[in-house]
Amino acid sequence: MSQAEGWSGSGASGVVIVSNRLPFTIHRSARGLERAPSAGGLITALEPVLRKRGGTWVGWPGIELKRDEEIPSDGEQPYEIQALRLTDREITHYVHGFSNRTLWPLMHSLPARARFDRKDFDVYEQVNQRFANAIAMCSRAQDLVWIHDFHLMMAPSQVRLTMPDARLAFFLHIPFPPYDIFRLLPWDRELLRGMLDCNLIGFHVDGYAQNFLDCVERRLGSRVDRENMVVEHGDRVVQVGVFPIGIAYGDFERRARETASQPETQSERVVLGVDRLDYTKGIPERIRAFERLLELHPRHREKVVLLQLAVPSRSQVAEYRALKREIDELVGQVNGRFATATWSPIRYLYRSLSQDKLAAIYRDADIALVTPLRDGMNLVAKEYVASQVLDPGVLILSRLAGAAETMREALLVNPYNADETAEALNRAIDMEEPERRTRMEALRRREQRDDVEAWVHAFLSTAEESRAAINPLSVHDFEAWLGPYLTRPRLALFLDYDGTLTEICEHPAKALLSDAMRKVVEGCAARDDTDVAVISGRKLDNVAEMVGHPGLTYAGNHGLEIRGPDIEDFAHEDLTHYQARTAELVAALDVAEVHADGAWTEAKGPTLTYHYRGVPPDRWPALIKRAERIITAAGFQARPAHCALEARPPIGWDKGRAVLHVLRERYGPSWSQKVRVIYVGDDQTDEDAFRFLAGLAMTFRVGPADTLTAATRRLPNVSAVQALIEWLAQRDGWPLPSGPLGPACRGR
Ligand code: GDG
Fold first, then answer.
1. Whose CA is nearest to atom 1 of ligand 1?
2. DSSP annotation string for 478-511
C-alpha cells in the first residue's frame, strides 16, 4: 500500500482539507438551523473522497452564526469538521470583496470586472490568518494539510510561521492567468509568496502552472527550473505540478442508470446547459449562439430546445444579480421572437436539483453545450460524459475551459464566436450514431480512468513522495540572467559586506572574508573592465580594513562616507553634526536600559546600530519598540536591519544615493551609456538601493525569502553570491568552469 493510500482519519498521518466552504451550508429556517449540501465543483470533487478516507475538513458553513448558535450535527458524519465562524464584516470584504470581486474575475482573465480595494485585501489577509490558526489547532505535525483555492492563497505562509515543518499543499481550482493579467493585482507578490510557503502547488493544466512560474520568476525574482517544475524560495524548494481534476465517475454513471427520466427532457431534442449562475460560464453568450442556430438553420425550430439549468450563486454581489436580470431578459427576448403555440425554444430553470435528477437529465440530453468564457476545469462536461449510459449524446466544449486540454473528442468552440458555436450545434444535431458513439466512448474511457480518486491519489502521492530539489546554481543561470544585460564596455559591481560577502556573525568583528570569497572578489577587481565597490553600514575605515584590497571603492555608514579610485573622498555635509548627536543617543539608549540581556549599541560616527541578536526573541518586539521611540526622539530615523535597528540621520541619503554618487563621480553624468551596474545585498538597508536602481541596474537580494524585495532577483545564500562573483570574474573570454560553480550553493 502506498503512503497516499495510508492517509486516513484513523492512521498515523491524516489529511486535513481546508477550503473556504464546508461541504455543507447552514440555512436558517422556521425549524432552526439546517444543513444542505454546498454547491460547486470543489465540493462535488472532494466530499466523496473525505467521506471514504476520513480526516478533517476546515471551512466556513456559509452563514454568519450568532454566538450561541451551534452547527446542527449530522449523525453519520464520517470525518471531523472544524467550522470557522466569520463575521458580517469578514463575509463582506473577504468573501464578496477580495475573493469574489477581485480575484475571481482577475484569475479568469476578465480584469475589467475586477475591483481593487485595500480594505478588502486587509480583511482577506486577516481571515487567511484565522484559517491558519484553525489549521494549527486541528492538525498534527505528520498530517498533510491540503489547502484549496483562491480564497486561501495567503494561509500557507501564516501556517508556516507557527508550524515551520508542516507538510503543506495547495491546489488552485480556477485558472492561473498570464503574467500581464496577474500583475495588475496590487498585492500579486503577497499572494505568490503565500502559495510558495507550501511544499507542493497543484494546477489543473500545464498552461496555468507555466503562468504561475512566469509570475514567480518575474515578480519575485526567484529561480525557477521549468524542466522539473520547481521554484527556489529562500532556502526551500517548492514543487509545482499539474493534476487535472476528475469526477466521481462511478457515482454519476450509477445515478444515470438508476434514475427515471425527468419531465424536463421528455419532448423535443434537448441541448443542455448546466452552471452556477456566473458570468464566467458564458450563459448569455450561449443563449445568443442558440438564437443564431435558429436564425441560420430554421429547420431546427420546433424540434430542439435549449434547457438551461442555473444554480443560484453569489446573489449578494450586485454583478451576479445584474447577470440574472440579463439572462431573464434574454430568455424572454428569444422566446418572444421564436416561440410558437406548441414550442418555446428556451427552458430556463433557476434552481438547484438533486444529483440523481441531474444525472438523469444529463443522460437524456442529446447535446451538452458547455461554453464557459474561461473555466479552471469544468466538471459539468465530465459529468455529462459519465452519464451517457444510453444513446450517446454530443459534447460541445469551450476551448477556454481547462477540460478542453484533454477532452479532445468533444466539438471544441470559441464561446465568444456565436456563429462557430451555432455551426457546432448544427453539426451535433445532425451527427450520426457511429460518430457520436466513437467520440463518446473515447471521452468516457478517459474520464473513467482519470476520475476523482485517481486525481486525489496522484496529488497525495506527489505530496508524499516529492522531495523537491533544484539543480545547483550554475553558469547557465548567470548566462541567462546577465548575458543579455552586460552589453556596455564596463561593469560597476556594488557589494554589501555583512550577510552578502560573509555570513552574519554574532559580533561584526568576527565576520571575516573567507579566502574563497576574497579570491573571487579580487578576480573581479583584477579585470580592466570591472570596478568593484563595497558598500556597508559599517564605518568606512572598518569595512575597508575587513576587505583589505586597496584598489576598491568603499562606502561606509550606508554611503555617508565614500573613498575610492577616481573619486574625491566624500563625506556627507551633515556628518559632523550627527557625529556629535550619536553620543547623546547612546546615552539615551543607556538610560532606557534597552541593552539588557545581551543587546548593545555600535556607534559609527554619524550613525548607530542597536544590535539585539543576543536577546531572547520573545523580548524583541518590546525592546525594538522602546529603542525606536528613543531613536526617533533623538532626531534620527529608525530603520530595521538584520537583528538590529539602524539609527540614521534623516537627511535623505542612503545606499541608493551613494551608488548614484559613485557612478556620476566615476563615469560622468551619462554613466548609464558607459557602464552596466550590478548590486548585491542582503539587508533591509539594501532595499533603498534596489528601489533607487530599479530599471537602472541588475539587483540581487541575498538570503531567505521571508520579506518582499525590490531587487530583480534573489540569491539564497553567501555561497550563491560567491558563485555569481566567480562567474563575473571569469566571464567572456575566460575559461568558464562547467557544471556547478564554487562550493555547494544550497542552504548551509
Ligand atoms: C470550480 C472551477 C473546476 C450544478 N448545478 C447543480 C449542481 N451543479 C454542480 C455540478 C458540478 C458543479 O456544480 C459545477 O462545477 P464546475 O466545475 O462546472 O464549476 P465551479 O463550481 O465553478 O468549480 C471549475 C472546479 O472548481 C473543480 O476544480 O472544474 O473550473 O471554477 O459538479 O454538478 N449540483 C447539484 N444540483 C444542481 O442543480 N446537485
1. 41
2. HHHHHTTT--SSEEEEEE-SBTTTB---SSGGG-
Domain extent at residue 149: 15-84+127-242
User: Which residues are the active-site residues?
Assistant: 496
**55-65 average pLDDT score:** 90
* The residue to which cell 575566460 is assigned: 734
Q: Which residues contact 628 (CB under 8 A, 6 or more apart)?
A: 638, 645
Q: Which atom of ligand 1 is nearest to the CA of 383?
A: 33
Angle at 433 between CA 428 and CA 436, to 5 degrees: 55
Residue whose CA lies nearest to ligand 1 atom number 20: 41
Which of 242, 266, 298 lies at the terminal end of a domain, its last residue? 242
Task: State the distance from the centre of ligand 1 to the C-alpha of 148, rounded, in angstroms.
Answer: 15
Q: Are 307 and 301 in contact (CB under 8 A)?
A: no
- What's the whole-number average pLDDT of the chain? 90
* Model pTM score: 0.88
Cell 424540434 sits on residue: 303
Answer with the one of 648, 673, 695 that is the final residue of a domain: 648
Whether 383 lines ligand 1, by a CB cut-off of 6 Å, is: yes
3-state secondary structure of 142: coil
pLDDT at 59 over 90: yes
Q: Strands of 337-407 (E only): list them.
A: 346-350, 367-370, 394-398
pLDDT of residue 263: 83
Residue with cell 452556477: 276
Q: Please check whether residues 55 and 69 belong to one and the same domain.
A: yes
